[in-house]
Amino acid sequence: MIKSKLEYIWLDGTAPTQGLRSKTKIVSNFSGNVEDCPMWCFDGSSTQQAEGHSSDCLLKPVACFPDPARTNGYLVMTEVLNPDGTPHITNGRALIDDDDNDFWFGFEQEYFLWNPSANLPFGFPEAGYPRPQGPYYCSVGATNAYGREIIEEHLDLCLEAGINVEGINAEVATGQWEFQVFSKGAKSAGDQVWIARYLLERTAEKYGLSVNWHPKPVKGDWNGSGMHANFSNSTLREAGSKDVYDVICQAFEPVKHEHIEVYGADNHQRLTGAHETQSIDKFSYGVSDRGASIRIPIGTVENGWRGWLEDRRPASNADPYKVAGRIIKTVKTAEVAVMQ
Hints:
The protein is of the alpha+beta class. It has helices spanning 148-161, 186-206, 234-238, 242-250, 256-261, 298-302, 320-339, and strands at residues 3-11, 20-28, 40-43, 56-66, 73-81, 104-115, 120-121, 165-170, 176-184, 210-212, 227-232, 285-287, 294-296, 309-311. It has two domains: 3-91, Glutamine synthetase, N-terminal domain (Ubiquitin-like (UB roll)), CATH 3.10.20.70; 104-339, Glutamine synthetase/guanido kinase, catalytic domain (Creatine Kinase, Chain A, domain 2, 2-Layer Sandwich), CATH 3.30.590.10. Strands 6, 7, 8, 9, 10, 11, 12, 13 and 14 form a nine-stranded mixed β-sheet that branches.
């Protein structure tokens, strides 16, 4: 009889930014398939998801990955349900309208490695500031890149777990990094981002560091952290028409506030119109424009207007489920106009 460790992972009820929670279930002769992960429960009163007098919340397994850091271990992403089996109010995944996986998403997850004892980015001196931005982006060397062993370990763990990480790089600010995750299917993309975040938190924990997901943890002339959302569906991949792209992009402007509501807390500190961002109260789109709300990649244009779009507004602390769900809703609304 083989005993397996199933790490059930879920999003809590912390506001305005949900956090990760997890606990281990030991099962016998586990197949490795998500269909064979049993439903479980937890104390919602301890995660701001229930009252003490009725505290049970359910965990519904939705994705399962091997856990390369544990013997016979698995990482189980779950949705939080109410006791009657309906989605909990904190469950953004259940709201995604993409059952046919027609939407493809690539998320560019930026973050800071953080020194919790000094409350500063990893690589910052405890007094004063490092050199200004410039040498850190895609950098190499001990005076430019900080925490590479953590980043490399995280990358290996993600790949061994089956997370479709498509790349990593050092970012513009000291101690700032990025990884990119792609998946065909919005729910799968969200699952993989959350598991990758979990693995990063756990890896940094080994080194006495934390991960700061705030969109602007260092004030002043330092880049904030985003989670750019690259997306497409059949319409965008097969359009062959600039007019179709214009209709879809223009559909985002009337609902810009609805998007910002789910694009991460404190995003106004990042979306200022500086540091490769558009102002939070404005909307724009353009070809190869990294200062726009939505960038049309040059590759899409060169491919005859067949490709994808990049929404540059989501913050690093945004929930990829909610970001994807809102983008899908807007694109589907625009498609009605395209068909007319």
